[in-house]
Structures are given as structure tokens and as C-alpha cells.
């Protein structure tokens, strides 16, 4: 059985935050052979290191066991349930209301690999792959994510991810975005959800890199996700698997906010 020898491992106190939601198990079938924390640590190892499932070190459970648990928890909504629970707890720790009323939207185009699955070409970024469309709150925590082919325009992808965000938090009042979301989308969002889509433009008199009000928050979230090597490209066959990987990365980050420990850090 794997011990706490990898930087990716969750401490016992950290695992206690998510254990109840992972332990829901049918009474049918064989008793669980591997400790849940060891299985979770193996999933985090794949996510943080970027290795293939089959290349898991031998002191973890067999890769088939680890992958089967990951897939089961994706299909039955466990990852989303844990993510949403931690999101509310972190916001409460930061003296914020559990349900945010303001958010920021943006997309990130990433390359895909030779695995099959939907993909497209983003002519603006000159990237063949997929887009991660995310909505985050003012703390940079994930509200909703949609992964789709990169050739889908931001205005079209925004409709999908904003629908998911609204279904989760129907009290959203304002969403900030960059100029790529301007035009008819503003009226559509107002009519459909009653949400104000406000475009935050880059100051006209600036050159080079500059921090743009509100938009830096969502860019920081992309930076958090990029520290997980499995998210450096899109290695997954299914977009839903890519979405689950991003949710697990945010679970790891939020667990470490509540009980500091193994979150990835910059150099």
C-alpha cells in the first residue's frame, strides 16, 4: 500500500474532508480491497505528474482499479458533488456568501494529442485542439466548465457554460468578460438568464502586458489549472473526462486552502 511519499499525497486530515462522499458504495459486489485515500492519491498523482494511467508506480493500486474508481465517480456525479461542497466551504471561510452573485468568464485553447475524440482548429490562437470554457467567482473558484472543440466561437461556447453556471447559481447577477463576448450575446444573456454581461476592455493607452480589472481573476484560475501536467494539453478521449480532471484539480486546491498541505506551487 502506498504511503505518504509523494508530494501529491493528501494528508489524513485533508482526505477527511472528502471521504464521506467517496465512501458511498453499493452493498452489492466484493468488499473494497484498497483504501480510498490510496486510490485518491493515485488519481492525484496522474493529474499532477501527467503520466498515463498504465504508468502508475507499482506501490499504488493497479491502474485498472484506480481508473475504474475515477470513471465511476465521474459518471455518478461524485466529483461534481465534492467540488460543489468544497466551493461553499471555501467561500464561507473567506466570509463570502455561499452563492456568488458575480462571476468572470473566459476560454483557453489547448492542444490535443493523438488520442481520438472531438477537436477543432482555433484560427485566432492557431491551435488545433479543444477549448476550456470556464466561469469563476470573484475568488477564482470554478463555478462551471465546458470543454468543446476549439473551432467553436467564444460566443457560442459561452451560451453552454453560462447555462451550466445559471443552473447551479440562479442568483448570478453580473458576469464580466473580454471583448470576444461582445455583440448580440450581451442581449441574449440578459433575456435568457436576466444576467448582465459586462465587457471589460483593455485600456487603450497601454502597451505590452497589463493586468486588466476583473479579467485577471479568471486568468489566474487558468494558471492554477496549468500547474497540473495532465491539463497542460488535452490528453482525454472524452471532453467530459477533461472537465472532470479540471474539477479534481480545483478539489485539490480547495482542500489545501481548508487544510494547507500538498497544493502545487510555482517555482
Give a written overview of the molecule.
The chain is α/β, with parallel strands linked by helices and 267 residues long. The chain has a domain at 99-234: Nucleotidyltransferase, domain 5 (2-Layer Sandwich). 42% of the residues lie in helices and 15% in strands. The chain has helices at 12-22, 36-49, 63-75, 78-93, 154-168, 184-193, 215-226, 239-258, and strands at residues 102-111, 120-122, 127-136, 142-149, 174-177, 196-199. Strands 1, 2, 3, 4, 5 and 6 form a 6-stranded mixed β-sheet that branches. A hairpin with a 5-residue loop joins strand 3 (127-136) and strand 4. Helix 2 packs across helix 3 and helix 4 runs parallel beside helix 8 (239-258). The two termini are 31 Å apart. The mean pLDDT is 90.
Brief rundown of the structure:
With 267 residues, the chain is α/β, with parallel strands linked by helices.
Major beta sheet, specifics? 6 strands, mixed
Helical residue percent? 40-55%
CATH class of the domain at 99-234: Alpha Beta
Helix-strand makeup class: alpha/beta
Alpha carbon gyration radius:
19 Å
DSSP helical segment count: 8
**CATH evolutionary superfamily of the domain at 99-234:** Ribonuclease H-like superfamily/Ribonuclease H
Which sequence of SSEs, written as H and E, runs from N to C? HHHHEEEEHEHEHH
Measured by DSSP, the beta-strand proportion falls in 5-15%
